[in-house]
Design goal:
Blueprint lengths: L11 E7 L8 E7 L17 H14 L2 E7 L1 H7 L1 H15 L6 E5 L11 E4 L7 H22 L7 H4 L5 H10 L25
Helix pairs in contact: 1-4, 2-3
Length: 203
């Protein structure tokens, strides 16, 4: 069973991101404040859930959450400031969008920057331990997947409908054959060498 809270006396927001390890597309972060009595046996780390259950849980989370926000940070910003800082920026921006001000922040992982002097706790694998982080992981994952499915309509060669921008062999082979798009992260190791790559956004 996931824990409902770390600090029972505080309004807690859970934060998580999706897409950190991808070669293309944005990183997506969510911040969620859940009711302290909420539980659902299907809720877990979004990576351990089926796509169907993630969709079901997303609808429920958006209905029952006291507050939530989802934010994207694009690949150009990722290239400019690095993926760790872009992930933290996305979580900060999601917290900015909350109407309810959290008194404590639960963050999945082990790195975070102080947000608005609000106490926070980093929890490794927190999306499999706390309700609010798990809910954030579901929202971040599903929103980002939807974004990559939309891009697939324009860039079908990269099979983003299947790999969502992650570094599969199929994705790397497509980069080697067709080059990169304006959605690829140029600071990442896309193939063995990036020499001679061309943007193909209009193809």
């Amino acid at each position: 069973m996931l824990k409902s809270y770390l600090n029972q006396k505080a309004i807690e927001a859970g934060c998580d991101e999706a897409g950190r390890g991808c070669l293309a597309g944005p990183v997506c972060a969510a911040a969620v404040i859940m009711p302290s009595d909420y539980s659902n046996p299907l809720l877990n780390d979004s990576k351990k859930m089926s796509s169907q259950n993630r969709i079901l849980l997303r609808k429920e989370i958006e209905k029952v959450a006291l507050d939530y926000a989802v934010v994207f940070v694009d690949n150009h910003t990722i290239d400019d400031i690095n993926i760790l800082q872009a992930s933290i920026l996305a979580m900060h921006n999601a917290l900015d969008k909350l109407k309810i001000r959290p008194e404590h922040i639960l963050v999945d992982g082990n790195k975070f920057n102080l947000y608005s002097n609000t106490p926070h706790t980093c929890i490794v694998k927190g999306d499999g331990k706390f309700v609010s982080i798990a809910a954030a992981s579901v929202l971040a994952k599903t929103y980002r997947d939807d974004f990559m499915l939309g891009l697939h309509q324009r860039f079908a060669k990269y099979k983003w409908n299947k790999n969502k921008g992650y570094p599969t062999i199929e994705h790397r082979n497509a980069i080697a054959e067709f080059g990169i798009t304006s959605y690829h992260r140029r600071s990442f190791q896309l193939i063995n060498t990036q020499m001679g790559m061309e943007f193909i956004t209009d193809k």
